[in-house]
């Protein structure tokens, strides 16, 4: 015997909105040159800008520094790595929400930076990248003399 399920139009509209968002994410240009990561999804990042540098923070739970690679080429900063799957000691896995495998995230940085001075640090499962701006990009204050 089949079961009746109550129709919830707002839930359906929310699902449709999520699907449309994903469609436009893949099809339309995104600011900063963000691209959906290869493998299992996009690495979430926070990007901050000061007059001297860009600071990028990304959560990397379970990723060690030797399983991660950060590169900069032609204005694009790329973080790649791999999360190794843990083998269960006993029993059958009932729920698996954590993702395993290779990941990648590319971020296009506006303006000119100093790639040789990029610093990457991993602390408490958070990757922090400090990307210094080049001198010609920094705003310069010009004093006005009274004549």
What overall form do the CA principal axes indicate?
flat
The helix count comes to 1
Which structural class matches the secondary elements? alpha+beta
In what range is the share of β-strand residues?
Answer: 25-35%
Q: How many beta-strand elements? A: 7
Strand adjacency order, main sheet: 1-2-7-6
Mean pLDDT: 79
Percent of residues in helices comes to 10-25%
Low-pLDDT ranges: 29-40
Main sheet: strands, sense, barrel: 4 strands, antiparallel
CATH topology of the domain at 31-86 and 98-132: Immunoglobulin-like
State the CATH class of the domain at 31-86 and 98-132: Mainly Beta
Order of helical and strand elements: HEEEEEEE
Name of the CATH architecture of the domain at 31-86 and 98-132:
Sandwich
Distance between the terminal alpha carbons, to the nearest Å? Answer: 93 Å
Please give the radius of gyration in angstroms: 22 Å
Structure description:
With 147 residues, the protein is an alpha+beta fold. It has a domain at 31-86 and 98-132: Immunoglobulin-like (Sandwich), CATH 2.60.40.790. Helices cover 13% and strands 31% of the residues. The chain has one helix at 9-27, and strands spanning 46-49, 53-59, 68-73, 76-83, 101-108, 119-123, 126-132. Strands 1-2-7-6 form a 4-stranded antiparallel sheet, with no helix packed on it. A 3-stranded antiparallel sheet has the order 3-4-5, with no helix packed on it. A hairpin with a 2-residue loop joins strand 3 (68-73) and strand 4. It is flat and about 95 Å long. The termini are far apart. The model is unreliable at 29-40 (pLDDT under 50).
């Amino acid at each position: 015997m089949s079961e009746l399920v109550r129709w919830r139009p707002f839930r359906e509209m929310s699902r449709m909105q999520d699907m449309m968002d994903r469609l436009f994410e893949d099809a339309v240009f995104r600011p900063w040159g963000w691209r959906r990561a290869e493998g299992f999804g996009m690495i979430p990042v926070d990007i901050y800008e000061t007059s001297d540098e860009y600071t990028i923070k990304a959560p990397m739970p379970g990723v060690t520094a030797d399983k991660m690679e950060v590169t900069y080429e032609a204005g694009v900063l790329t973080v790649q790595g791999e999360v190794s799957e843990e083998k269960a000691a006993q029993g059958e896995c009932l729920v698996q929400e954590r993702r395993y495998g290779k990941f990648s995230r590319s971020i296009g940085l506006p303006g000119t930076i100093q790639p040789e001075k990029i610093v990457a640090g991993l602390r408490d499962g958070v990757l922090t990248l400090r990307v210094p701006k080049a001198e010609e990009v920094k705003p310069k204050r010009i004093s006005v003399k009274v004549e």
